[in-house]
Design goal:
The protein is α/β, with parallel strands linked by helices and 415 residues long. The radius of gyration is 23 Å and the shape is globular. The chain starts with a helix and ends in a 6-residue tail after the last strand.
Length: 415
Amino acid sequence: MAARGAIRQGVETVRSVVRFGTVETDPVARRLAKAASVADLRRIAKRRLPRGCFDYIDGGAEDERTLEANSKAFAETRFVPRVLRGLPDVEIGASVLGAPVPYPLVLAPTGFTRIADPQGELAVARAAERAGLPYTLSTLSTRSIEEVRGVSDGRLWFQVYAWRDRGLVEEMVQRAAAARYEALVLTVDTAVFGRRERDVRRGFSLPPVIGPSTVVDGILHPAWTWSFLRNEPIRFANVVGRSVGDGSSPVTLADYINSQFDPALSWDDIDWLRSVWDGKIVVKGIQCVADAVLAADQGVDAIALSNHGGRQLDGSPATLSLVAPVADAVGDRTEIICDGGVRRGSDIVKAVAAGATACMAGRGYLYALGAGGEQGVDTLLGWWRDDVRRTMSLIGAASVDELDRSLIDLDRLHP
Ligand SMILES: Cc1cc2nc3c(=O)[nH]c(=O)nc-3n(C[C@H](O)[C@H](O)[C@H](O)COP(=O)(O)O)c2cc1C
């Protein structure tokens, strides 16, 4: 009698804990189900991509001190959480360049996105539109201005480099206007190319070459190699067939940029840009208060405090450390975008609390793309939205307008 009771009890206990869920048959969904953070996506991308491609995405300039500093600044900034504020819900919507966004984030421009996934910029633009976030297409994109507009009705910005051939810039600007891009993002931190030593060591070129030194890497990453070989060649899609070179023969980015981009770019060029573009202008790559003030004096619509994700000048300050002093200096004369080191939604909350209008992020979505293609980017943008809401709830901020410096401790950044 007692034995039967014990058996019944045992069966009941087992039944209460054993769950056989459905087996996920989609390999991408299965892979993504094992990830819970950007660090996980990075790990998966590292496994899937050839080392040269992964290092091109992951690496920074020289000793990578600025790359590290960008993330460290977020890690060292603690919250000052407020509790018992009676918040049944929080409102995470914000506004960037005068239009609403579901949370304060813009996807940063990244050149050569197709090395992470064959769909490249198309995948990112579609995911950004689904998330309601603006996406910035790089000048050095591997899908063209028109192709990207062809797959997205969302908010698109176009990033411009100052080619020596200003006629080429003007033509691209006109194409961006015709394709209803909303803003131009002029990148100003690339007078010359930063020394990215991982790429130097690997002799990394764009497009990547498969030769004696990379063939083993290719064999070790068969899925990537197969999709690379099966899809159309990777090119600088906005300049295909132009005399500046479209990447149809492999070139190191250093040689390409140093020969094609104009190191003599100056503040006067912003006036010139305005003469060929009626829309909004963002200057990306501001790295000190004095230049932020000059940009505000020029009346640009936004500045992106950015060191190119630590890929240009090693020794440039962490972008988060610039937000508060720049916000104090420019007030509400221009919007402030904090670009570099964002790996979690809580990082976005910290930057906005310090005084930024929004953040930009690059590597986060590239790791997601490398780990799980378009689905990976959807997953990431969903995590970040949820992170922002959860973090604001935990620090007691009812809306983005309520995020201010009383909710963070910036002492370690500004002792
Ligand atoms: C692989 C890669 C390519 C990039 N290409 C460009 C580019 O073409 N133009 C540009 O303005 N910035 C470019 N950036 C810089 C990003 O726009 C952004 O400033 C940087 O990624 C922010 O740092 P995070 O990666 O820590 O988010 C690139 C960054 C990466 C990682």
